[in-house]
Design a protein that fits this description.
Layout (H helix, E strand, L loop, with lengths): L4 E9 L6 E9 L5 E7 L2 E9 L4 E3 L2 E2 H4 L3 H14 L5 E8 L3 H19 L4 H6 L30
Parallel strand pairs: 5-7
Antiparallel strand pairs: 1-2, 3-4, 4-7, 5-6
Helix pairs in contact: 2-3
Length: 158
């Protein structure tokens, strides 16, 4: 599959039947990169995906060097495994903010969004794996008169 072309799905109505038959028309794009943005907690990942040999870099480091824990690497690779595109694409990620867990989640969302742009047929697989769902949980703010968001100073009756 050549990723330097964008596939648009159109419908063609057959003269003999009333059902719509999908066909694919090809339109060239200006850039070979497909972009996807992912966010999780306070982390933001800008993901570029292109056809290649399977190179996966995060902040100009190998993904194995950047994410030292297996669970974070698995989160980053998960959309590629689910769609069967592992080893067929080059992925370059710039990620900042948050910690490693939030960054891994942001990379996962960014890769999934880029894969959806490459081929819209990946959408059901990515949705079933919950790779396209933005996790909206954020840190709760500290309240005035308290020690933290929920913790309070010790109460003294006398």
């Amino acid at each position: 599959m050549d990723l330097s072309i964008r596939i648009k799905r159109k419908t063609q109505r057959s003269s003999t039947s009333t059902s719509e038959v999908p066909f694919v028309s090809v339109e060239a794009t200006k850039s070979k990169w497909i972009w996807g943005t992912g966010r999780r907690k306070t982390a933001v990942a800008r993901v570029r995906v292109a056809e290649g040999s399977g190179l996966f870099q995060v902040n100009e480091k190998s993904v194995d060097d950047y994410f030292t824990e297996v669970k974070h690497r698995n989160d980053a690779f998960a959309p590629l495994y689910a769609t069967g595109m592992m080893g067929k694409l080059d992925v370059h990620v710039k990620v900042h903010g948050g910690g490693f867990s939030g960054q891994a989640g942001a990379v996962m969302l960014g890769v999934a969004r880029a894969l959806k742009q490459i081929n819209s047929e990946f959408d059901p697989v990515l949705r079933d794996g919950r790779f396209l769902t933005r996790d909206g949980r954020m840190k709760e703010r500290k309240k005035y008169g308290q020690k933290g968001a929920r913790k309070r100073f010790q109460f003294s009756k006398r």
